[in-house]
Amino acid sequence: MSELKIFFNGAMVPASEARVSVFDHGFLYGDGIFEGIRAYSGRVFKLDEHLDRLFDSAKSILLDIPYTREELVEAVCRTVRENELMDAYIRLVISRGPGDLGLDPTRCSNPSVIIIADRIALYPQEAYQHGLELAAVSTRRPAADVLNPAIKSLNYLNNILAKIEANLRGLPEVVLLNHRGYVTEGTADNIFIVREGELVTPPTNAGILNGITRQVVMELAREQLGLTCLEENITLHDLYTADECFLTGTATEVIPAVVCDGRIIGNGNVGPVTLRILKAFREYSRSSGVAAYKTGVATA
Ligand code: PXG
């Protein structure tokens, strides 16, 4: 396999030569933002929505992205093309850039813009067929007025602490609660439950990242499958007693969960609503997106 080429501040650089400064505030303080994006069959899925969120995150942390939207679209597509990828995982990272040994972001004048596109590491197929076991962990999602989870920042220590709890329990994913005890999301996925045929997912003000996959699933559920989808606070009791449960995310897509904290969700099998959502999502994600190759078979 040939060496990956990384988009690095405007140039395509071999992975082994793509290095950021030890003075980059992304490294020193987690000061920066990112997006995790996927391409299916040479088409970048929901690129506009990812760029919307990226620009919103940048605005919130007063970071000036040194490229226009159009330039970033081309940079993402170019990175996919130059690595000759069809199905890809794309990581777009913008850090505050090199500064000095102090917090002050105004000391950093050149944000680092990095795009990595690699082959996608998929979850085992088994997990999609039989569903995950989850647990609620003690790590809490911070409240929006502490560190707003809506900002997709390089500060993922909260999620990593939860992931450590997951590892210690031998689980692939776990559920984080907010300071009020409501269910928020997983370490890198949003959560849905199915109750009497209706979908319920925590509202954005519960302190979650408003996932692109979450938004696509709500849209498909409402418009294509004719399902009601509510954004309501979910307690652990609601989760334990739900008919079905699934997680959504760019890497995960839609993955069923059948157990939480030893409670079997529904009858313990992947439920019919989850299966419909999974099928609709797979069809939609593989038939839309921005063509990364100029000769691509389809466009947005
Ligand atoms: N919640 C959190 C905290 C996330 O980080 C999601 C929900 C799902 O959002 P999207 O927009 O992807 O539907 C995320 C997404 C990675 C990786 O490599 C992380 C994410 C996405 C892709 C890759 O860790 N986080």
TrEMBL record:
- Lineage of the source organism? Bacteria, Bacillati, Bacillota, Clostridia, Eubacteriales
Give the keywords, sorted.
Answer: Amino-acid biosynthesis, Aminotransferase, Branched-chain amino acid biosynthesis, Pyridoxal phosphate, Transferase
The cellular component terms of Gene Ontology attached to this UniProt record, alphabetical and capped at eight, are: cytosol
Briefly state the protein's biological role: Acts on leucine, isoleucine and valine.
Its annotated pathway? Answer: Amino-acid biosynthesis; L-isoleucine biosynthesis; L-isoleucine from 2-oxobutanoate: step 4/4; Amino-acid biosynthesis; L-valine biosynthesis; L-valine from pyruvate: step 4/4; Amino-acid biosynthesis; L-leucine biosynthesis; L-leucine from 3-methyl-2-oxobutanoate: step 4/4
The EC number of this protein is: 2.6.1.42
Among SUPFAM superfamilies, the record links this protein to: D-aminoacid aminotransferase-like PLP-dependent enzymes
Q: Which family, according to UniProt?
A: Belongs to the class-IV pyridoxal-phosphate-dependent aminotransferase family.
The coenzyme or cofactor needed here is:
pyridoxal 5'-phosphate
Kind of enzyme, top EC level? transferase
Q: Which domain of life is it from?
A: Bacteria
**Gene transcribed to yield this protein:** ilvE
What protein name does the entry list? Branched-chain-amino-acid aminotransferase
Is Transferase a UniProt keyword of this protein? yes
Which BP terms in the Gene Ontology apply to this protein?
A: isoleucine biosynthetic process; L-leucine biosynthetic process; L-valine biosynthetic process
GO molecular function annotations of the record = L-isoleucine-2-oxoglutarate transaminase activity; L-leucine-2-oxoglutarate transaminase activity; L-valine-2-oxoglutarate transaminase activity
**Which PANTHER family would you find in this protein's record?**
AMINO-ACID AMINOTRANSFERASE (PTHR42743), AMINODEOXYCHORISMATE LYASE (PTHR42743:SF11)
A Pfam family: Aminotran_4
Tell me which Gene3D superfamilies the record gives. 3.30.470.10, D-amino Acid Aminotransferase, subunit A, domain 2
Q: Which reaction does it catalyse?
A: L-leucine + 2-oxoglutarate = 4-methyl-2-oxopentanoate + L-glutamate; L-isoleucine + 2-oxoglutarate = (S)-3-methyl-2-oxopentanoate + L-glutamate; L-valine + 2-oxoglutarate = 3-methyl-2-oxobutanoate + L-glutamate
